[in-house]
């Protein structure tokens, strides 16, 4: 079928364009990785002797390590909260009769189509006006709110495809609603739930604005990196960037793989 | 629906998520609107009048809009050949992999990506070094810390996002339609114009909309690549909160930013509604 819509000449151009795009997308990341092994304080070519100096100084730097663990904790909790809340909400939107369905769905999904900076500034102004000090638990709630739409949309897509009859069967055999959700629905959705956990984790791990607005002193990794970038260059930033890139990429890729390939599996079953 | 015992009560499932959204999104938004309307002498539009009579602020708004529009347009144009290639030139089995190749950097920190472009674009960065290596002439690029660098950085992000949404639309086109058209003698260009483009349109529009939202509220790329001399609105908002702490002014700017998103999104939303109506008719 491919031959019907793309002739040889077009194919050549499209392939070239695709390869060129890949180069443009990956060039800066490659440069960063190369520089992370480059000795010498300044980010200029040509490449000097290779070194692990920046990685070693990174491990020795408590401020980076602490902020990494803060981010790890925030992202883990936010992704777990968002996935649980998202699963419950997705179930209601998919299987129950929700009054004002469109409006309520809109409210839950809205944070996705609002610039993040507005969510951050809104929460900051709110806590100031009711006299709460900025703190990490606010960041946690803010980030849960921010990744909730992703969880709801992902899980709703999955639950929509499960016939209601499965649950009905369990219930007519005497199971309770809660039991049927935990024992039947959740296991069927397990791959999607896992993917959603990873997806919301990566988004929350990299989230900057909400964390920036809602804390004063305890910093997450993106804030630590930002501070370093705007207040004068530290060569170990390349090492941090490389480490974060590989960390987020691994998680994101696993999530994306599950979502994309599970999707094709489902299509196969349908056909 | 079976008996009343079979109907599910949605509230226990919905309430936790809804509560979170109401407490941390709806109430703060309402509060922000109130703050922006509060002035020293009661309720009024003084804050907005002040905003639009301050050149420093209106210029920043103008820059935000131009930046977002330029980046969105470039990104949306780049997305077509990329998505088209992945969907129509790649074996079905390998499509997800090709898409992942484009999307992978998407999963890394926005800040780190913007920073990594500094290494490439700066006056002693990789491009300048490469040009000097080949031509032997030392050049001053002068790209970093300009509006163009910001547009470039955001356009890259937009093209990834739009490729993703467009891919979703193109991949679900029924290939029978294309085969039928071809059997009846349609040329590749006509197949594109009459089948692929109209069916890809919803995914394309969604990508454009989301791109614009991200770009208009971003401050990381404008700060790291565009520099601080000609700030966009988001940068000004940040500096107010960390500096002068004028809450009413910060709220006013936030509301204006939100209005910008809504106004630019409105034509797209109306288009979507008209389209849905036409399809259902």
Q: What is the structure about, briefly put?
A:
Chain A contains 13 helices and no strands. Chain A has helices at 2-5, 8-35, 53-60, 62-95, 101-109, 116-129, 136-160, 164-172, 177-188, 190-206, 209-214, 221-230, 236-270.
Structure description:
The complex is a heterodimer of chains A (271) and B (281). By secondary structure, chain A is an all-alpha fold. Chain A has one domain (55-270): MetI-like (MetI-like fold), CATH 1.10.3720. Chain A contains 13 helices and no strands. The two termini of chain A are 19 Å apart. Chain B folds into two domains: 14-44, no CATH class; 57-280, MetI-like fold (Orthogonal Bundle), CATH 1.10.3720. Chain B has a two-stranded antiparallel ribbon with strand order 1-2. At the A-B interface, helix 1, helix 2, helix 4, helix 5 and helix 6 of A face helix 1, helix 3, helix 4, helix 5 and helix 7 of B.
N/C terminus separation of chain A: 19 Å
Q: What amount of the residues of chain B lies in strands?
A: under 5%
> What's the CATH superfamily of chain A, by name?
MetI-like
**Major β-sheet of chain A, in short?**
none
What's the order of the H and E elements of chain A?
HHHHHHHHHHHHH
In CATH, what is the class of chain A? Mainly Alpha
What structural class do helix, strand and pairing data of chain B support?
A: mainly alpha
Domains of chain A (count): 1
Instruction: Provide the CATH top-level class of the largest domain in chain B.
Output: Mainly Alpha
Mean pLDDT of chain B: 86
Low-confidence stretches of chain A: 266-271
CATH topology of the largest domain in chain B, by name, is: MetI-like fold
Distance between the termini of chain B: 28 Å
Major β-sheet profile of chain B: 2 strands, antiparallel
Overall pLDDT score of chain A: 85
Query: Any guess at the CATH architecture of chain A?
Result: Orthogonal Bundle
Low-confidence stretches of chain B: 1-5
Instruction: Quickly count the domains of chain B.
Output: 2
């Amino acid at each position: 079928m491919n031959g019907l819509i793309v002739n040889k000449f077009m194919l050549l151009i499209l392939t070239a364009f695709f390869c060129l795009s890949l180069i443009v997308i990956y060039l800066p990341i490659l440069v960063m990785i190369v520089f992370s092994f480059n000795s010498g304080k300044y980010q200029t070519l040509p490449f000097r002797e290779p070194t692990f100096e920046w990685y070693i100084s990174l491990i020795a730097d408590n401020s980076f390590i602490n902020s990494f663990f803060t981010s790890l904790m925030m992202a883990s909790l936010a992704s777990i909260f968002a996935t649980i809340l998202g699963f419950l909400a997705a179930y209601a939107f998919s299987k129950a009769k929700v009054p004002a369905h469109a409006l309520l769905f809109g409210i839950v999904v809205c944070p996705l189509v609002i610039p993040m900076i507005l969510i951050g500034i809104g929460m900051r102004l709110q806590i100031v006006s009711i006299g709460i000090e900025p703190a990490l638990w606010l960041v946690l709630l803010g980030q849960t709110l921010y990744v909730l739409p992703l969880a709801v949309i992902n899980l709703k897509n999955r639950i929509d495809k499960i016939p209601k009859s499965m649950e009905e069967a369990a219930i007519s055999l005497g199971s309770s609603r809660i039991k049927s959700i935990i024992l039947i629905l959740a296991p069927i959705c397990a791959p999607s739930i896992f993917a959603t956990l990873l997806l919301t984790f990566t988004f929350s791990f990299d989230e900057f604005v909400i964390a920036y607005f809602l804390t004063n002193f305890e910093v997450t990794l993106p804030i630590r990196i930002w501070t370093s970038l705007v207040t004068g260059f530290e060569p170990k930033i390349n090492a941090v960037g490389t480490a974060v890139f590989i960390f987020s990429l691994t998680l994101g890729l696993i999530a994306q793989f599950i979502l994309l390939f599970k999707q094709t599996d489902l299509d196969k079953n349908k056909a | 629906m079976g008996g009343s015992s079979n109907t599910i009560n949605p509230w226990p499932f919905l309430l936790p998520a809804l509560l979170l959204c109401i407490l941390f999104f709806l109430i703060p938004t309402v509060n922000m609107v109130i703050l922006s309307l509060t002035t020293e002498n009661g309720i009024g539009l003084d804050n907005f009048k002040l905003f639009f009579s301050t050149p420093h602020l209106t210029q920043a708004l103008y820059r935000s809009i131009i930046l977002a529009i330029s980046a969105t347009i470039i990104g949306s144009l780049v997305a077509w050949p990329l998505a088209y290639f992945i969907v129509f030139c790649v074996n079905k089995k390998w499509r997800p992999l090709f898409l992942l190749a484009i999307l992978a950097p998407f999963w890394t920190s926005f800040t780190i990506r913007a920073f990594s472009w500094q290494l490439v674009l700066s006056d002693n960065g990789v491009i300048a070094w490469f040009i000097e290596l080949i031509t032997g002439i030392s050049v001053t690029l002068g790209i970093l810390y300009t509006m163009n660098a910001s547009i470039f950085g955001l356009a890259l992000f937009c093209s990834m996002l739009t490729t993703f949404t467009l891919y979703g639309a193109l991949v679900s086109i029924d290939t029978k339609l294309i085969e039928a058209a071809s059997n009846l003698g349609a040329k590749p260009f006509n197949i594109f114009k009459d089948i692929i483009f109209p069916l890809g349109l919803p995914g394309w529009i969604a990508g454009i909309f989301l791109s614009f939202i991200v770009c208009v509220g971003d401050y990381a790329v404008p700060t790291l690549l565009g520099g601080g001399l000609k700030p966009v609105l988001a940068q000004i908002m940040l500096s107010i909160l960390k500096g002068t702490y004028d809450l009413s002014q910060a709220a006013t700017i936030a509301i204006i930013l939100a209005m910008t998103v809504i106004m630019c999104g409105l034509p797209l939303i109306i288009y979507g509604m008209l389209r849905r109506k036409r399809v259902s008719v």
